[in-house]
Amino acid sequence: MVKKGGGKGGKKPASKKTAPKKPKLTPAQRKANLRTKQHIRSIKDAFTAFGFKHISGMSSKKFQFKGRECDFDDVFLLDNVLVLVEHTAHGEDHVSGHLVNKKIVFDYINQYPAEFVEYVRENFGDFSSVVDPLYQDHHFQVKIVYASLNNLKSSIKAHVQNVYFLDYPYLRYFKNLAETIKTSAKWEMLGYLGVKASEFSKSILSASSSSANFNGSVLPESQSHFPAGYKVVSFYVSAGELIQRAYVLRRDSWRENNNIYQRLLGRKKIESLRKHLLDKRGVAINNIIVTLPESTKVLDLSNKQVETDKIKSVQLSKVELPVDFNSIGIIDGQHRVFSYYEGGSNESQMAVLRAQQNLLVTGIIFPENTGELARDRFSAGLFLQINTNQSKVKPELIQEIGVILRPFAVQSIARRVLRELNNRGPFSDHFATAFSEGPKVKTATVVSYGITPLVRPHAIDGLFNVWQSPNRDLLVKGGVDPSIDEAVVVEFAEFCVKEINTFTGAVRSYVSSRWTADKSMGDRMLTTVIVNGLFHCLRRICGSGALMSFDEYRDKLSGIEDFDFSGFGSNRYNQLGQQLALDFFGIAKGAAEE
Questions:
Q1: Which portions of the sequence form the region Disordered (predicted)?
Q2: Do 441 and 517 fall into the same domain?
């Protein structure tokens, strides 16, 4: 008879040790993990698409430089540009401490780049095996990039200097750019990293020319119909040379200039033009309209500078352009230029066309010492004039250009306010941009019918009515007096953002689980009707002269979580605002009539 337990001697068989089960992830955790992986993958995809080599032997490897231990999540190399990438999916609280801990080694690397390269050569064989031996240690440009999945405040970024913050919207822009124009996107990335043409690749090995001449012609100032001092030249330049120097003030890009207005490159349009170039081998006939850098020189055939205010007719000339990245601003024709991009399946054929085919460029040289704002306003106005005649311009684009051309116009103020609402507060990242992820609120209708009535100067029922500033009159005069400083618009917009965020923050505190634009949630709060209705409610509160604190609003709004928003359909913003003002603040119709 076998005893219980079996086996010889009645001993129980040894049981196998099993590893403890990992806790099951919630759907939200799985989604967050997937987003983090996609973020990391996007960084690698973007840099490798630009032509950078990924140095896996240095990535996530601990090292000590000048006694400080450190590591970088990813390391990339393009010729003599070494990019050290630190990425994170953590929130601001963690990032703040993380940056402080990294600051000393970041500073050492930035202060002693040649020593750092020497250290890397000696300790990382992967680097030494791919680097061109022509480059000595002091030839390298070492750039530290901090890529955060979540938005970081400027105050947190200020913890470190000489670090390039590749915010997630910037990363998505660059990834989209690389997918559209392949390796040619590297020139814009180099501009973002602050790399000069004279310091990049083989240019750093010798004293190469800092400028190049192009044959063309110059128009007398009297015939340009532009303001005095503006020069207009036409010249031919190869597509490759233009791509290397070009920049475009595209919306939702990495440029922190507020005066950006152009569309993103359309992949279908680029590929259609590229197919035409390859099939027909014909150059684009229409000229490319650009702005040229202030250092541009217009020379006659004997290399003397042309005085454009004195010539009476079109004159043959040479246009001397600096050899620098991001120096020629394309106003019209970006798709025609970038259809010659480097990379893709037909690169061998396109490389010939990119070098051989010359594009006709009309360039505008601004008067000396023209400020950036004046340049941007001129460019935006010319862009709008050209494109309005060619095709229908989207209202969002018209609004953005209005901020540049007519900053004191009420719709421009409204657009400026919306930008800031999307950057901070209850509406942060809830309004649609080019690279928005997930459901967002469309902006054109909110600007026109929600924010504009709320911020209108002179209105007795808007935020202007309760703005206690000595600059009130200047804001009104700014619409007709160009000498009024735009700073007053910024001041008023900041006041508007603060008050809107206080009010809507109190609303959100009651309905936080519904504070989304996701259509799968039937009672979501972030619809165009509800958002505009909230703005119209605040307008009536302003009309009563009773702005409140967050806590005071919250006391008044008790019960808003049970308010039936479903009875207010399309375009009934005003009626919704009126009902909210009556039910929660006792403000009857008539206190703020349309």
A1: 1-35
A2: yes
Domain count of the fold of the chain:
3
In order, the DSSP letters of 290-311 are EEE-TT-EEE-TTSPBP-TTT-
Q: What token pair was written down for 474?
A: 């200047």
Last residue of a domain, one of 176, 198, 220: 198
Closest CA to 316 of 306, 325, 326, 324: 306
* pTM of this structure: 0.78
Answer yes or no: is pLDDT of 390 > 70. no
Record the tokens describing residue 295, joined without a space.
């250092």
Contact yes or no for 152/92 (Cβ under 8 A) = yes
Contact 315, 297 (CB under 8 A): no
Q: Which amino acid is at 119?
A: Y
CB 479, CB 464: distance < 8 Å: no
The arrangement of strands across the sheet holding 141-148 comes to 53-54, 74-78, 81-88, 141-148, 163-165
CA-only gyration radius of the chain, Å: 29
Domain encompassing residue 261? 209-390
Q: Residues 558, 446: one domain? A: yes
DSSP 8-state secondary structure symbol assigned to residue 16: P
- Please report, for the chain, how many H helices and E strands are present, in that order: 22, 15
Do 480 and 579 have their domain in common? yes
Task: Check whether residue 193 and residue 217 sit in a common domain.
Answer: no
**pLDDT, tens digit, 9 for 90 and up, residues 208-237:** 667 889 988 988 877 777 878 888 999 999
From 131, 164, 198, give the residue that closes a domain. Answer: 198
Least reliable range by pLDDT among 370-379, 493-502, 517-526:
370-379
Closest to 229 measured CA to CA, from 328, 86, 369:
369
For residue range 506-565, list pLDDT tens digits in order: 999 999 999 999 998 889 999 999 999 999 999 999 998 889 999 999 999 999 999 999
What is the rounded distance in angstroms from the CA atom of residue 128 to the CA atom of residue 180? 32
Tokens of 365: 């040289």
